Amino acid sequence: MKISTLILVALILGIAFGILLIYGFPNSIPFLDYYLLSPLGEAFLRLIQFVVVPIVFSSLILGLTRIQNATQVGRYTLKLISSYAVTSAIAVGLGIFLAIVLQPGIGVTGFQISEATQVVQKQSLIDWLVSLIPVNPLEALSTGNLLQTIFSAALIGVAIQLVGDKATNFVGLIESVYFIFEKILALILYTAPIGVFALISSAIATQGLELILKLFIYVLGLCLGSTIMIGFYALILFILKAKPVHFFQSFFPSLSLAFGTASSNAALPIALQNAQENYGMREDIASFAIPLGTALKRDGSAILQGFNALFIAQLYQIPLTPSLMLAIALSTFLVSFSTAGVPGAGIIMMTTVLSAAGLPVEGVALVAGVDRLTDGLKTVLNVVSNTVNAVILSHWESTSLEQAVE
Description:
- The chain is mostly helical.
- 80% of the residues lie in helices and 0% in strands.
- It has helices spanning 3-24, 29-66, 70-102, 125-131, 137-143, 146-163, 168-188, 192-207, 210-214, 216-239, 244-250, 252-261, 264-278, 283-296, 299-315, 322-335, 345-357, 364-405.
- The longest helix has 42 residues, at 364-405.
- The protein is globular and about 65 Å long.
């Protein structure tokens, strides 16, 4: 049986086991979660994180060495950022639109606002851009800062092109690093069904179904938004004649892992593998676009933050003025590019959006419980948006090449 099939089976069994614990053995949940489910899930995530940074760093450098020149790197980056901006704006608009239509904050009662909710200091756009430049590339690698790792790899990749043959030994070393960690990833994948089972079981068992029912419209809205956006990307693939069915079949392993782990970073190595081996994407584009998208592209966060901000505003009966809507839209758009690709990162960034819009940050406490249960689908959307934008770049480049030949 394929690993992707085993992961899907583990997801289904994990959900069933979580529900069984809730209704059959509620008293055993704290013990099982603390001593079995959480440790297994955390161990699996740590194993995945072990290979993420080396694979991103090495694959990006190798991808840049395959690109003809520095001008091409700049062209790839400009095209990707342009498509990211357009599709992220659509995701932000969709989240806000669904919140206005569904009104998830109307009629929600029975919650006690936590006064202990902390406000995360908002980072300005300028500060965020400056923070992309690492002071020490080794520190960026050791701390797992993907944005700084990508920046470091980009500089090294461009320098390798300028140096030429003198960098041959270094490129050989980087190739060895890539192949070694790719093999380690293949070994780690055998533990994926266990890790996914533990993670989803823990989420279901500890959060419970009553909270989901009470916030049903909220959960429904986020799931609906993610599903619609995935459908939008499928339409883009259809328009580009990029075989949407083949696309989703090719990326099924990485999408399954994304759903089970709720981590875009965890799904990154598999997505790179799926893009090149299953979907047949060009190596230079896949190894450049997918790591960059993993660090920047967060359509799931774009939908979440706008939808959640309006949910809080409705809950506190705050008038939705044009200035408030603009503040929510702009802050959501910027935050979507700086949300970490790890479980629960959206909750932390919620406070940034709420603070920027002048909304009560205590409202985060209301949705913290159900966030993990919607995080999986939002992460699937993140991976889909990242990989489809890579396909868009590939199509864009192929069209430009055809026009140049003509």
